[in-house]
Structure of tRNA (guanine-N(1)-)-methyltransferase:
Amino acid sequence: MKIDAVTIFPQYLEPLQLSLLGKAQSEGLVEITIHDLRSFATDNHHSVDDTPYGGGAGMVMKAQVWGEALDPLITPDTDLIILTPAGKKFDQPMAQSFARARHLVFACGRYEGIDDRVRMYYSQSEFMEQNIRVHEVSIGDYVLGGGEVAAMVIIEAVTRLIPGVLGNPESIVEESHMAEGFLEYPNFTKPSQWRGIPVPEILLSGNHGEIDKWRATQADLRAKKNV
Ligand code: 6GU
C-alpha cells in the first residue's frame, strides 16, 4: 500500500517511521511519504490560510495550495481522506475497508479546516470515473488542533490489517469476528496470583468450551459498562 500525507507539520508525522510501520516499510509492504503543504504555497509569505468568506473566527486553509499539493498525488484508484472533526466517525469496519485500498492520501487540515471546494473538486465525476474516492473522516467527538494525530491513528489502525504487517494474523481474525462493538474480554498471564488477586479459575480449567463462553460473557459485560 502507498500512503501519502500532506501537512504543514511534517515532523508531527515522523513517528510513522518507527516500530511496526518502520519495519513494514523496510519490508516493502507499505510506503509512506510525508509532504510539506507550505512548499506548495506560491506567494511571498508562503501563506497556507486566509480569512473565511462570510466572516467569523479563525482561518481557512487555501484551496489553491491544497490543489497544487494534491494534484500530483491523486492518480487513478486513490482514496483521499480529508481529516475533519465534521467527518464520518472512524471505526474498525472503516479501517478494514481502507486496508484493502491501493493508495491512501491524507489531507491534514489545521485552523478551521480546508476550503470546502477541495473536497468538491476531487469528488467530481471525472475523478469518480478514475476510481478516486473522497472521504471526510473524524476520529471521535472532540476537537484536535489539526488532522495530523487523527491521520496517525487511522494509518496505524489500517496498516496493521495489511497481510504481513502484523506478526500474528490470528489476532486479526479474532478482531474481525468482533468487528461490531469490538470490546475484548479481560486477559491474564502468569503468575496465577498477583498481590492477592487470583486469575479467574475457569481460565485454568483447560475446558475451552467453557472458557469461550466465559470470555463472550465478559466481553459483553465490558461492552455494556462502557456505553
Ligand atoms: Cl480528523 N481533526 C480535528 N481537527 N479534530 C478532530 C478530528 C479530526 N477527529 C476528531 N477530532
Observations:
- The chain has two domains: 1-167, 180-224.
- The first strand starts at residue 2 and ends at 7.
- Residues 83-85, 138-140, 142-144, 146-147, 150 surround 6-chloroguanine (CB under 6 Å).
- The chain has a mean pLDDT of 94.
